[in-house]
Records
---
Amino acid sequence: MQQQQTSPSLDDVIGALADPTRRAVVELLGTRPHRAGELAKAVGVPPARLSRHLKVLLDVALATDTRPTDDARARVFQLEDRAITPAQEWLDQL
């Protein structure tokens, strides 16, 4: 059975962005894709803690990840700004 993928809710996206570390990661990803290690160093958190933050961003579709062909162990994260659109539209209505 194929699992249907649903869009994250506005509450999920805002909840993910409520954390200052995740906001810092989103800001960095807004500039260009980054490897996980680069992000951990830039925001000043241990890699294991950053991994949990990245999982939240992936779960609400604020970020996507790929594995470079030259290093299958590495993960490169990039901003998926379509997930921000509902939050931005909601804020614009205020």
Note: Residues 47-59 form the longest helix (13 residues).
---
Amino acid sequence: MTRMVTYANRAEVEAALAGLPRTVDPAFPQGIREVIDRTRNAERVFRRICDDSSVAADIRFAALYAVLLRLRREERLTDYVALASRYEGEFGSQPYFHTFRAVILRLEGDLASLLQAIEHSREAARLLPEVAGVQHQVAELITEYLEHQESLPRPGAVEEAEGLVDRAIALTYGRVAHYFETKARILCLRNDFATARSLVRRAIELEPKQGQDYLRRVSQYQTTRVKIDVFAQRADFMRTQDQFRREMGEFKTQQLELLGLLAGVVAFVASTANIASQATGSAGVRLITAMAGALIVVFSSFFLMSGGRDWRRGMLAASLGLLLLVVGLLAPTWLVHRP
């Protein structure tokens, strides 16, 4: 393995920055990373270039991008905000500055600021459609916003994030590890936990072991793996809770139906008994017999409709009830009354 050649002085660093592709070129982010890795005391050198107004503006902006990238890698976010704010007046019209603003707004920690960050990131993605990192930033911010929402995501939000991260993966030919981690987080929102876990494993395998961010990235991937397990358990709990609520609703409906049936039966028995008490002997007997048959038919039908297991017993009871009902309604007087 050959050792990477480092720049000997600031002049060589400025020459390397001048030789980079234009900032709107998709190759710019990778080129600036290579310059950072080959620069000794990178932050100090790049800050001096930024502060030197005699240097060309495009070189100074490239140096600013390099410092901000390094600060973000090291999670020195207070320094990141201070430096970006310092140069916003001079370089605020650069397309990449929308990504800097998105990072700063994301640090606010509330959903309103996160929505503003998404809009800045979308604008950067519109201006830099072929830059994979910018497309990925939009997907990552949308995913973070959806993860913090308590309600269901709005229609199309998950699809937008997934489309952007897929585009970022395609632009880099699937070589950037943390894009797969973002895709895994999106799949969690779809409850596709098995595929999400496999993508996290892929991200860990793809992460360059010699990279400066290796340990931080792998730790981040392991955290995402734990989140996937938590989301999976929460989804199982929600499914169980929904099933319980559905069963409770069905039980309440059955109870109300039964109460309605019992109320009807009580009213039917009371009115039938009242009428039978006022009728002649044979007519009263026939009425009581018909009432008994009707009650047996009603309860046996309810038993069968509610899913009673012993359907034969239910059919036998219904047959008996029908027999009594027929006897009560159609039997001749001599069968139910003897003088």
Note: The CA atoms of residues 139 and 161 lie 4 Å apart.
